[in-house]
User: Fold these one by one.
Assistant:
Number 1:
Amino acid sequence: MNRLDARTEALTSVSTSDPRISALENQLKEAAVEIAELRARDALKTQFLANISHDLRTPLTAVITHAEILRDGILGELSPRQMESVRGIISGGRQLLNQVGEILAYARGAANQLTVVPSRFAMRDVLEQVSGLNESLLKKKRIALTVEADDGVPVVDADREKIAHVIGNLLGNAIEFTPPEGRVWLRARRGSAPGVTDGPESIVVEVGDSGPGIAPEHHDLIFREFAQVDSTPSRQHHGTGLGLTIARKLVELHGGKIWVESELGQGSRFFFTVPLRQPD
């Protein structure tokens, strides 16, 4: 037996005879089992969220549809007080349906079930489409909206529905947090994320507002799952806390980046990039 074999045998005998090492090995095995169980539970939780969110959409849509039938007078004229109640049902139902949709999108993203279905479209068309969908809310709060796209912004090859979802989420937040008679804006230009010099050519979309702004120490927090800057029960703005998490997921699916520039009292500007050349 040479010297190396003798040393190996000695180390082996120590590891099998030393109770501390044996206890450590047992703890590692137990930890591995616990981690596997936690992963399995997390997968079940994600599947449950997807299933229950999908099942909730059908009855919620039915409630909204029947309320809209009443609102439109198809079953007879309503009194002013009845009309006000029906409109409240529709508004609350749509808000709840949007939250269920966010949970469903989050569950699909967590289960890696989100895919990109690219098509060619002009980014300005999507900006105007999303702004049109929010026209009534803008009028209600008397908020001015401007839409701008540089002449040099080319047609992009991306998932139009998912890009519209990101813009709609950011614009919805901007409108919600901007006080009445404020202003919000949508802009698109060629560019790249900060610090990116060798990445693919991209389009930068900006969604800005004249709202209260976000403290720098909260810039990372707002993109985390279920996180909200104001998490108290008496907070003014309610939601699932998943909107920006989903937006980040959809942007990263396209190979882009999303970030915020904001300070308290200075409004907020959210940016995300859409590479002109999509990853495989």
Number 2:
Amino acid sequence: MKRITYPWQLVIILWFAYFLNQGDRQIFNVVIPLIKADLQINDVQIGLVATIFTFVYGILVPVAGFAGDRLRRKWIIFFSLLIFSAGTLFTGISNGIILLIVFRSIATGGGEAFYYPAATSLLGQLHQKTRATAMSIHQTSLYAGIVASGFIAGYIGENYGWRMAFLSFGVIGILWAMVVLWKVRDTPMPADVKSAETNERAGEGSVTFVETVKAVFSRRTVYFLSLAFGCMCFVNVGYLTWMPAYLYEKFGMSLSEAGLHSTLYHFLFAFFGVMAGARISDKLAFKRKQIRMEIEIAGLLFGAPFIYWISVTNDTVWMYVAMGLFGFFRGMYDSNLFAALFDVMEPRYRASSMGIMLAFAFIIGALAPVVLGWIKTVAGLEQGILLLSFLYLVGAVLVFTGLKSCFKKNYYQEMNH
């Protein structure tokens, strides 16, 4: 049997780390009805907890990206996993809105912010010709983590209480942090980055955070990709936060059923979408430079009608069909989310550019839980879901504008460097 090479071993290790990263997020969304009943808090307060979580993530992720270009990425990944898992663990002992914000919003959100830029930068470095494929496999752990944790958290919550769901996932995450510490290599930056750092030490000056930001935003394509990602993130955060409650209240499902059905079809088909998009882009990228952004446009444009379908149907079967097709096109977009960004950024700025792009997205996305919570109280959650379909169309227009206006000028021909 052929031995798995280290670059693919890393994909496996980080797959499980990201599974826990995303699983920890979805636990909260599934057990919202139990938390509300136990702690006597309302929809807007629940939305506020999720909004602060996303806002903290958005504020810290540029710092995480800057750190990922300059510090040892293995240790960033390890401490990120350790901290957000501890935050999840302590969320299980919270007795009110303040402790939920401290442990769930700040500790868990802050810890999670440092994982993705460092992990994706490491994968991108070790997988040049298979970059979109490796990143897409890594992305599937988001889907699996949300689906599995949704069902498991619902089952645990119904049978053992909502606190046990957080305690269980927190302990598992701390144990997996030890695996990361043991198995992940302390891989240095590429030679061109090391050479640049050597020149800086020789007297040319160090690259500051402000200089890095200027370098990233000298590529105008980044503006359009970041704003489009913000639209997608608003949709994603709003959907994941409120869809379990939507199924629980509108269709009378149990928590475990709502947790499963709200994510299963969406992310099952997203898996096929992300792998299809990755395969197409990796096959055509060296012949058609703009293919990654074109796939992003298709994902957002064709996903929008199915979000609308979810908001208007009263039939669960057709809603599941809509969730699945929405998921497929969401996966198409996800498959090239950062691979498209890397097309316009050289390696030394990639973690930083991801951090900036994630900040845009999550600061915008942070508004979704509380906005949809407010819409739910005044007009019904169907109207909130309808808003999400419109934002997908806005995202498609933004990527298209960036592609036509500045991508050709910003394109980075990596093989020539």
